[in-house]
Amino acid sequence: MNYLIYRCDCGRVLYSKETTKTKKCTCGKTLNVKKRRILKIAQSSTQATETVQQMQEEIYGGSIFRTANEL
Ligand SMILES: [Zn+2]
Question: For the DUF1922 domain, which residue ranges apply (predicted)?
Fold first, then answer.
């Protein structure tokens, strides 16, 4: 199972299984996964989580720590 990694318009990095059609971001926007530009593909949910965390840190310079209650 591959996981697709992409960004919401609000800037958050999200991931979902490649079979997922829509994904609701924590900002409230529902994304059509098939129409998003895929940034990366991960081979497992663990890898997807790590990649998302790395990308968030790159984007926010590690100054913002996302917590589990946002997931
Ligand atoms: Zn969003």
Answer: 2-57
Q: Are 11 and 39 in contact (CB under 8 A)?
A: no
User: What topology does CATH give the domain 3-66?
Assistant: Rubredoxin-like (3.90.820)
> How far apart are the CA of 59 and the centre of ligand 1, in A?
14
Phi, psi angle pair for 46, to nearest 5°: -65, -45
Residue 28 C-alpha to ligand 1 middle, in angstroms? 6
Question: Domain map of the chain by residue range?
Answer: 3-66
Task: Give the separation between CA 37 and CA 67, rounded to whole angstroms.
Answer: 25
CA of 9 to the centre of ligand 1 (A): 6
Residue 43 C-alpha to ligand 1 middle, in angstroms?
A: 23
pLDDT tens, residue by residue, 1-59? 999 999 999 999 999 999 999 999 999 999 999 999 999 999 999 999 999 999 988 88
Residue 61: the pLDDT is 73
